[in-house]
Design brief:
The chain has 364 residues and is of the alpha+beta class. The protein folds into two domains: 187 residues, Gcn5-related N-acetyltransferase (GNAT) (Aminopeptidase, 3-Layer(aba) Sandwich), CATH 3.40.630; 145 residues, 3-Layer(aba) Sandwich (Aminopeptidase). Helix content is 40%, strand content 29%. The strands form two sheets. The chain has an eleven-stranded mixed β-sheet, sandwiched between helices. A four-stranded antiparallel β-sheet has the order 1-3-4-7, sandwiched between helices. The chain is elongated and about 70 Å long.
């Protein structure tokens, strides 16, 4: 018999780690941004007095068959209008790119999604709007949510929110290298050989025994890279910085962390931070010493990381969001994420949408 219960405390959230990751591993939504480690670290670092856990656990007798990883936030709009907004855990502040409902693959999606929305329907006093961002465009859960929203006469909108370039990797570096444009292939090979011959360049992974020191070395290079543009970089926010430091420890224990350096005389001159989960590599951020930029060290580092990902059996290299030109130079194609906006019809939500519409028109 299907039943839905809500997890609303940090203690309950902490206790479900094993069941959460076991379910994720047998779902079609299996991605590193839906792991318990990512979600729990986000909750610990970014939750505040306005947030409440709204994790819905779908049970078949005593077995967890689905999880809706949600959080409710009380938000004030227009200075006085309060809305209870439900989003996926990890939607804001950090690179939570691929979020979704987690459902065991053998279960009928419509049945599970119907049970989740039935729970929401029976607890409308606890929420006003669902804003579910970061869902991969090919997720079957999108259509399930749309069908259910229509049946219940909910407001429902769907829009694309981000582009995430990615590369399908062949089984060998040679095959990948030959697929690149001649200019990229030639420059990468030339600069790498030049740096190795003239300066003894090495390509090294982080030391699991010294994660903290290696993370700091990466952050230093990342900030140097952005300083030449007069910008602080992606980790200036201290909460965000602590979140990624926490993630580094969790992921290092799981062998999901990938932190690569180009070094000369043991000194890091470039670094790339990513994650490897299943057969996919996720490229988070990079950094380099501007003094070495004339040697195309960013390109040398990225090509070396892709080569290693192929050697480790990865079939996809994901650049995450952002349509920067350099990603397409490595043969990237696009996939998109979707945002669903769902609300039941009430005076409160009607007024909210009307005010939002007027504000947007005035802004334009």
């Amino acid at each position: 018999m299907i039943a839905v219960k809500r997890i609303s405390t940090t203690k309950e959230f902490a206790a479900i780690r094993e069941e959460w990751n076991n379910l994720l591993s047998i779902s079609n939504e299996d991605t590193i941004f839906l792991t318990w480690e990512w979600a729990f670290s986000w909750w610990e670092e970014f939750s505040d007095a306005n947030n409440s856990l709204f994790i819905l656990i779908v049970m078949d007798n005593d077995k967890v068959v689905a999880i809706a990883p949600l959080v409710m936030t009380k938000r004030t709009f227009f200075g006085f209008f309060n809305i209870k907004e439900i989003t996926f855990i990890g939607t804001k502040t950090v690179h939570g790119e691929y979020l979704d409902f987690i459902i065991a693959s053998r279960w009928e999606k419509n049945e599970i999604m119907s049970s989740v929305f039935e729970y929401l329907d029976n607890h409308t006093s606890q929420w006003d709007i669902l804003r579910l961002n970061g869902i991969p465009e090919k997720s079957i859960n999108i259509q399930c949510a749309a069908d259910i929203a229509m049946d219940k006469n909910y407001r429902f909108t769907q829009e694309f929110t981000s582009i995430c370039p990615f590369v399908v990797l062949p089984r060998s570096w040679h095959a990948f290298n030959m697929s690149l444009k001649k200019s990229i292939r030639k420059n990468f090979g030339y600069q790498k050989r030049r740096l190795q011959k003239q300066f003894g360049l090495t390509f090294e992974s982080y030391d699991p025994q010294h994660v903290e020191a290696d993370i700091e070395a990466f952050l230093t290079l990342h900030e140097k890279r952005w300083a030449i543009k007069g910008l602080p970089g992606a980790f200036v926010n201290q909460k965000k910085r602590r979140f990624y430091q926490s993630i580094a420890y969790w992921f290092s224990e799981k062998n999901w962390l990938r932190l690569w350096f180009l070094k000369i005389d043991t000194k890091p001159i470039a670094a790339l931070w990513g994650f490897q989960y299943g057969n996919k590599f996720y490229y988070l951020q990079s950094g380099f010493d501007p003094e070495w930029s004339k040697y195309s060290i960013g390109q040398v580092l990225l090509g070396s990381v892709i080569e290693n990902a192929i050697l480790e059996g990865c079939s996809e290299f994901d650049f995450l969001s952002g349509a920067e030109q350099y990603k397409y130079e490595w043969g990237a194609s696009d996939k998109k994420n979707v945002k669903l906006d769902i609300s039941y019809r009430s005076t409160k939500t009607t007024v909210f949408y009307a005010m939002s519409f007027i504000k947007n028109r005035l802004w334009k």
